[in-house]
Amino acid sequence: MAYITLCKHKNLMEGELAAFSTDDGEVMLIWPDDGELKAFQGTCPHQDVPLWSTFNGRIVTCQFHNWVFDGRTGKGLSPSGCELKQYPLRIEDGMVQVDMMQVDLTN
Ligand code: FES
């Protein structure tokens, strides 16, 4: 386990996405409407570039070529068959921590 601290939990809002560049790579925190906070890879599986994205509270859209992902699961909606890797996330002393060396397979 190699958790790194990204930010204060209280600075995040439901329905929003926050992107971070770390020594371990790009990571996104996504808190979907009526969902729970999750951490996903911050690169697009299409061309492995940092995901320049928009998020409407449910759906993440890569602005380069409009691939679309479910913000709750990271699964590709258009096209299907792709997905964003999910990383284990924990809250410690009010701080959001993510382990980018592991992949969370709970979805
Ligand atoms: S790089 Fe994201 S859709 Fe092409």
Bound small molecules, deduplicated: FE2/S2 (inorganic) cluster
Helix/strand/pairing category: mainly beta
> How helix-rich are the residues, as a percent range?
under 10%
Shape: globular
CATH superfamily: Rieske [2Fe-2S] iron-sulphur domain
CATH class: Mainly Beta
Order of helices and strands: EEEEEEEEEEE
Strand fraction equals 35-45%
Q: Which radius of gyration do the C-alpha atoms yield? A: 13 Å
The oligomeric state is: single chain
Second CATH tier, the architecture: 3-layer Sandwich
Number of beta strands: 11
Indicate how many domains the architecture comprises.
Answer: 1
Low-confidence stretches: none
**First CA to last CA: what distance?**
20 Å
- Helix segment tally: 0
CATH level 3 topology: Rieske Iron-sulfur Protein
